[in-house]
Amino acid sequence: MALTKKDNPALLLIDVQKGIHNPGYYGTERNNPNAEKNIEALLKKWRLESLPIYHVKHCSSNPDSPLAKGKIGNEFQDFIVPQQNEPVIEKDVNSAFIGTDLRTQLEDANIKNVVIVGLTTEHCVSTSTRMASNYGFNTFLIEDAVAAFDKISFSGKRYSAQMVHDIEIANLKDEFATVVLTEEIVKLS
Fold first, then answer.
1. Are 120 and 35 in contact, with CB atoms under 8 Å apart?
2. Which of 26-30, 85-89, 98-102, 124-128 has the lowest mean pLDDT?
3. What is the pLDDT of residue 1?
């Protein structure tokens, strides 16, 4: 499915917060060091075109989390600070739709298409992408504007951040989202 400005797609920025830069908490490595650069390019495009933007912020209930309320890590990264007309959705679980009014806000604005970017691929991005699709939104996931951390399996095997990312994208592709690259979506006309 092609996406145009006339489709009025909403950009959902998931958990682009300072605390994500704490790899010791999330894993030992992260893939896609250009994710934030690509997110910034998309945000600039959406602002230039006056398209709807929603900032999703994780407010962890775990006081040890870098994303816990009151910690510096809970703040948005400097390049992404919301503007006055850009709603901020606070959540404390992996989905931007659980315990929030995001779905209602999107439906009230007659938004049918969502473009998802942010952190991390395997957690809040994946869960929010799945739920957006299940709620009936045409969902676009920007593969190079998300990133993952490495994981240790139940049996103790380590999976690289790139492998975690690739498998998660493969699981979401076609079933839950149209997966595209930043360079494709910034050409939105």
1. no
2. 26-30
3. 58
Q: Is the backbone of residue 24 left (phi > 0), alpha (psi -120 to 50) or beta?
A: alpha
What is the pTM (predicted TM-score) of this model?
0.96
Helix (H, G, I), strand (E, B) or coil at 146: strand
Three-point CA angle 103, 98, 14, nearest 5°: 75
For residue 81, which of 144, 18, 22 has the smallest C-alpha distance?
18
pLDDT tens track for 92-141: 999 999 999 999 999 999 999 999 999 999 999 999 999 999 999 999 99
**What superfamily would CATH give domain 14-185?**
Isochorismatase-like (3.40.50.850)
- Residue recorded with tokens 């602002």: 47
Of residues 86 and 23, which shows the higher confidence score?
Answer: 86
Name the one residue in this structure whose structure tokens are 């699981």: 171
118 and 124 Cβ atoms separated by less than 8 Å: yes
d(CA 181, CA 38): 9
* Interatomic CA distance for residues 83 and 75, integer angstroms: 14
* Tokens coding 104: 């209602």
Is the torsion defined by CA of 15, 16, 17, 20 positive or negative?
Answer: positive
β-pairing verdict for 138-147 and 113-119:
parallel
